[in-house]
Bacterial leucyl aminopeptidase (Chryseobacterium salivictor), 336 residues
Amino acid sequence: MKKTKYLLLPLAFVLLQSCAANLSYSGSPFKKSYESITSDELKTHLYIVASDEMEGRDTGSEGQKKAGRYLIEQYQKMGVSHPKSMSSYYQVIPKEALNGRRGNLPESENILAFIEGTEKPEEVIVISAHYDHVGMSKGEIYNGADDDGSGTVALLEIAEAFQKAKKSGKGPKRSILFLHVTGEEHGLLGSKYYADHPVFPLANTVVDLNIDMIGRCDPGNCGKDYVYVIGSEMLSTELKKINEAANKETVNLELNYKYDDPNDKDRLYYRSDHYNFAKNGIPVAFYFDGIHEDYHKPTDTPDKIDYVALKKRTQLVFATAWELANRKDRIVVDKK
Ligand SMILES: [Zn+2]
């Protein structure tokens, strides 16, 4: 009797510890997927997405469409399809819905790739990034490598990582939608169109993790391993905790909450695509590197990206999404 007791206690302790500390990260599928996100692959993709050939990816331009075709090719290569209810990866946005702040725009497309959940397929985790940029002006190309080439290629690597897990029999329990939106630079138009015409009911949309600029540093933070996180506790206390735990378990970046305030003078909470989810009561987290000297200039080029920082921030979003997709209970909205 006595002996057994002694044996059981440490075992119970070990079990408790591993549940509390490791969330859903224990085991090799997470590790292998996580490690498949590499600086080299991000760099290869970004040098194409932000190349001169894409002509600054203005909404509805041929350059943007070309970048979009590249994204689709990558999803096809990794075996990730579009949502079943759609006939292609494109959610076409009619030009009537694209009357932006810089005038009328041609028809354009959101691009949607989808990995179906194994246990709760109806619950959807959205990971978003805009693939448009500001185009060309006076003969100069605005490559938009950081804005938002960085988020765009992060989505490709995160999708590849989840697909790798799926192939090894450990696909995400909830579904993941990789949402490449258009028209961001003209007033968050692509994400607004998606929120007005959702492919999956918004009520079943668990969260939006939005990535917009994660490959550079701002003057106050260069040399630090950091990322700004915005909005993560605005609607759900759990989301902030999950993101922090994911960070601690993996890349351990300094999470900077400077802009995490709807009343901040820079109003970043309202300035990227997550806002169209947040305004519909869906918890969001926005990952961002700050405003730097090449922001919205022709000099936002792929050679200036810090590919190690880009990798770590991409891995953080992946780890957060992994927990959100695999945890037992869907996160709850406990704030307004
Ligand atoms: Zn942007």
About this structure: Residues 1-21 have pLDDT under 50 and may be disordered. The chain is about 35% helix and 20% strand. The chain has one domain: 27-326. Residues 130, 147-148, 184, 212-213, 272 surround zinc ion (CB under 6 Å).
